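Each field is listed here:
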Amino acid sequence: MITGTVTDDGIPIVMLPIAGQLWQAIIDTGFNGDLELPEGLRSSVHAQYIERMTALLASGQHSEEDLYAVDFPFDARLVQAETTFVPGQEILIGTSLLRSYRLEIHFPAWTVLLEAVV
């Protein structure tokens, strides 16, 4: 189980231990991939190139991106996930990574709960 909070701006976040530090990760229900990670984490997650892909953004625009397979620490275990890398420090968790989880965002209580469904 992973718990988190909702920011003052209404963004659901969780904290994840990656490469020896805690990182803030946004739960992005509009992103149907697995992950988007900061470029600086590439070597920490043992990225292996898969292919060049075309992503369809929410704005309707297309973006060419390199897709990688990574070993990602999630819910006290290492999972295989597909990711793209971007400049900056933002981590996005997409709905594909959450396919075996129940997501509860309780806006009035400012809480987030990710619970594995067995």
Notes: The domain at 2-116 is CATH 2.40.70.10 (Cathepsin D, subunit A; domain 1). The chain is about 0% helix and 60% strand. The two ends are 12 Å apart (CA to CA).
